[in-house]
Amino acid sequence: MVGCASVRGRDESESIRKESHSVNTIYPSIEAAMVVHIWSLNISNKDISALNQSANVSSGDPLEPHDDTPPGLSRTGHTVTAVCLGIILAFGCLNNLFVLLIFARFRSLRTPINLILLNISLSDILVCLFGTPFSFASSLYGKWLLGQSGCKWYAFANSLFGIVSLMSLSILSYERYAALLRATKADVSDFRRAWLCVAGSWLYSLVWTLPPFLGWSSYGPEGPGTTCSVQWHLRSTNSMSYVMCLFIFCLLLPLILMIFCYGKILFIIKGVTKINLLTAQRRENHILLMVVTMVSCYLLCWMPYGVVALLAAFGRRGLITPVTSVVPSVLAKSSTVVNPVIYVLFNNQFYRCFLAFLKCQGEPSIHGQNPQHSSKEDPHALRPCDGPSLHGNIKGLQNKEQHTLSLVVHYTP
């Protein structure tokens, strides 16, 4: 019986050992299967994320950031941008509203050249109403709020109003120069030409802002994604050609025209100062300050934006960071604040009407004007009727001292 018990014990221990061996061989296979399954899940998750990322890139959604896009602004950066845009919005609306109210209040301001000034203020206040509020709100939230369609129409409206303002500034410089060559009084033909210039500035702007809707480049988010404009960063021939044409015909040519016209005005006035140093020198200094201020503000507000657009289109990828792009954008919008200040302060008639408006007075008298001249005459026009002789040479002016003296006294920039 003892032998049977020992045999039975050996059999049981042998069976237990076999069971434990089978269990040990089963569990590693289960663990290996679990590891393989988990590893496959990790691979599948990575594949899904990669597929989603590639789908986002291939979809071309302009509101989604891509891998080659630099990181956006910080919360502090968005706040600083919002504060700057809020200040521009408040003062831009206030300044241009003052200009429009003054123009409506005083009939003496309704001259051909002042119609162009009015067009500048109108385009600037439209930017303040239909552009700056949306970029201001988007900067507060740190993202664009109006969707892809709203982004395109925002970019179109701001480009339209901005180019109208730029073209009006260049047209104004030409009209001021042409005023030196015309007779004294503004007739119907002068008003007709002024209205044609205003309509031409809007038509010219439409010619350059509609093509992105027709396939020549496109509109989309720019910089940190809180504003929209032309897609400067696209490297296709289609987009790069549009950026180059926009820079040449809507920024560089108006600047060249302004420098040429104001330079000719300075040349003519400087020839007059050789005759009457006491009166004309003061007038020349005023005009020189006006010219330097206008050209400098034009360069400060708009040239950085144009240079950054060219660098984004033709420079190295990633060269233009969100901070680099947002500063020129804010400077361009600041022109809505600067323009009315400059063109009111350097326009003597507008400035007198502005003071009369603040004091609730009537039509201000034009000091230094002869009684026989009407108050409705163009303040930018020269008084002598032999204006073309001024364009000839300065010697002719020196031989007509009395006429040139009248010119210097009555010319108002």
Automatic annotation (TrEMBL):
Residues 95-343 form the G-protein coupled receptors family 1 profile domain. The keyword Glycoprotein applies. GO terms for molecular function: G protein-coupled receptor activity; photoreceptor activity. Its main location: membrane. Pfam families: 7tm_1. It comes from the Eukaryota. The keyword Transmembrane applies. PROSITE patterns: G_PROTEIN_RECEP_F1_1 (PS00237), G_PROTEIN_RECEP_F1_2 (PS50262), OPSIN (PS00238). Gene3D superfamilies: Rhodopsin 7-helix transmembrane proteins. Belongs to the G-protein coupled receptor 1 family. Opsin subfamily. This is G-protein coupled receptors family 1 profile domain-containing protein.
